[in-house]
């Protein structure tokens, strides 16, 4: 049997080492920073309705992130993560999908969920972990999930969604469904073993999945140049047999076009795709982080000038689809709506204690029954330490 791996290769008769210079991956960009397209740019499929929905989601997320970070500083919530500066990546790519395509997020894709229709009340119920939280209060803030909106619940361990995305896409292919999975992750998560297993399996089995890397320059405090020696994350996709594209992650039209074409490849040809979006995290990694310890203000200012929200706003104004007056009015509406939802969610009771023990076993095992009873007795003994739940213990 002939070895195609050998016979298809170009044969040489002396050592030839290949380095990064042999592969130059371009970056797709459509909008200039002044909001005008490049003269030779090919725009995505986009009408006024979709464009304004994307931009409105930008404004909502900016308002949500601003209010929730302030709430964390006030001690009203325990933790938060903003996506300031990266909105075009997840919102622009989600806008290219069908509503029943599966989203597997990392932890900075609340924009994708908002675009699909997750309401301010639903955001607040999860963040405050009250009894109306779809996750029953079992997770810390920003670990959203919605079966109705085809948004897989966020997990804390880094990169676990990558092989899950390949497996879900394999099932879509087996069931001959006309859908794909999009899987978001950062360049830091691409250092996890799950990344390599996921891309390798996707390449071998040819499943309809789009791996979407938000390369924002930092894995918490570790800059990209200390994470890898290669040319970003994109070359790894080629190595695993995936169609690969690099895009300006602060240009929402470029992201939209890249993902529209990636979806066609994934769904129509069962060709897995890797998109690397080059962007920047303007905020801290999380509310527990202080970025002034590892980057300077001039670097942040350089990227602030490349703001994806401002760039798209300028394009909308050039189209006569938006005005400055519209902008101020809508921003205030979002602020008012979010504040009202927050005040409402704060008053909703915490989930019942029994929800800590349900949804795993059909019948609660004896050892969990003992733990549940021990917890109830503990709270009864120290009610002052459990103000949110002590008053409900008698109903358990």
Over the alpha carbons, how many angstroms does the gyration radius reach?
23 Å
β content, as a range? 5-15%
What would the average pLDDT be, to the nearest integer?
Answer: 95
Proportion of residues in helical segments: 40-55%
Shape: globular
Major sheet: order of its strands? 1-8-9-5-4-2-3
Q: Which structural class should the secondary elements be placed in?
A: alpha/beta
Order of helices and strands: HEHHEHHEHEHEEEHEHEHHHH
Please report the distance between the alpha carbons of the first and last residues. 69 Å
Low-confidence stretches: none
The tally of helices reads 13
> How many distinct beta strands?
9
Q: Mind describing the biggest β-sheet?
A: 7 strands, parallel
Entry summary:
The protein is an alpha/beta fold and 396 residues long. The chain has helices spanning 4-7, 48-73, 87-94, 110-116, 120-127, 161-174, 193-205, 234-239, 252-269, 297-304, 308-318, 324-346, 366-381; strands spanning 27-28, 102-104, 151-152, 181-186, 209-215, 218-219, 222-223, 243-248, 273-278.
Kindly describe this structure.
This protein has 396 residues and is α/β, with parallel strands linked by helices. The chain has helices at residues 4-7, 48-73, 87-94, 110-116, 120-127, 161-174, 193-205, 234-239, 252-269, 297-304, 308-318, 324-346, 366-381, and strands at residues 27-28, 102-104, 151-152, 181-186, 209-215, 218-219, 222-223, 243-248, 273-278. The protein has a 7-stranded parallel β-sheet with strand order 1-8-9-5-4-2-3, with helices on both faces. The N and C termini lie far apart (69 Å).
């Amino acid at each position: 049997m002939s070895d195609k791996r050998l016979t298809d290769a170009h044969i040489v008769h002396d050592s030839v080492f290949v380095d990064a210079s042999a592969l130059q991956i371009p970056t797709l960009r459509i909008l200039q920073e002044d909001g005008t397209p490049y003269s030779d740019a090919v725009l995505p499929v986009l009408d006024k309705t979709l464009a304004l929905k994307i931009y409105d989601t930008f404004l909502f997320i900016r308002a949500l992130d601003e209010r929730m970070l302030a709430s964390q500083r006030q001690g009203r919530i325990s933790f938060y993560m903003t996506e300031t500066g990266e909105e075009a990546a997840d919102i622009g790519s989600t806008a290219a999908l069908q509503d029943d395509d599966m989203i597997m997020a990392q932890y900075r894709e609340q924009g994708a969920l908002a675009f699909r229709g997750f309401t301010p009340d639903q955001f607040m119920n999860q963040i405050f972990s009250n009894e109306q939280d779809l996750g029953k209060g079992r997770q810390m803030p920003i670990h959203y999930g919605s079966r109705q909106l085809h948004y897989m619940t966020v997990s804390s361990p880094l990169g676990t969604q990558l092989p899950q995305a390949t497996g879900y896409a394999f099932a879509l292919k087996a069931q001959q469904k006309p859908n794909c999975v999009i899987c978001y992750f950062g360049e830091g998560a691409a250092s996890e073993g799950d990344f390599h297993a996921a891309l390798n399996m996707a390449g071998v089995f040819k499943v309809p999945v789009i791996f979407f890397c938000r390369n924002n320059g930092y894995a918490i405090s570790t800059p990209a140049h200390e994470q890898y020696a290669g040319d970003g994350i994109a070359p790894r996709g080629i190595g695993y047999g995936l169609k690969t594209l690099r895009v300006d992650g602060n240009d929402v039209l470029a992201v939209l076009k890249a993902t529209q074409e990636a979806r066609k490849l994934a769904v129509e040809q069962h060709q897995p795709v890797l998109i690397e979006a080059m962007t920047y995290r303007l905020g801290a990694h999380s509310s527990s982080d202080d970025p002034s310890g590892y980057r300077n203000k001039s670097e942040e200012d350089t990227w602030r000038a490349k703001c994806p929200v401002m760039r798209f706003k300028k394009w909308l104004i050039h189209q006569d689809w938006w005005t400055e007056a519209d902008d101020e009015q809508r921003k205030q509406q979002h602020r008012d709506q979010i504040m009202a939802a927050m005040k409402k969610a704060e008053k909703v009771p915490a989930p019942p204690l029994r929800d800590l023990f349900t949804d795993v076993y059909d019948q609660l095992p004896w050892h969990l029954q003992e733990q549940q009873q021990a917890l109830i007795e503990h709270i009864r003994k120290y009610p002052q330490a459990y103000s949110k739940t002590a008053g409900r213990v008698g109903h358990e």
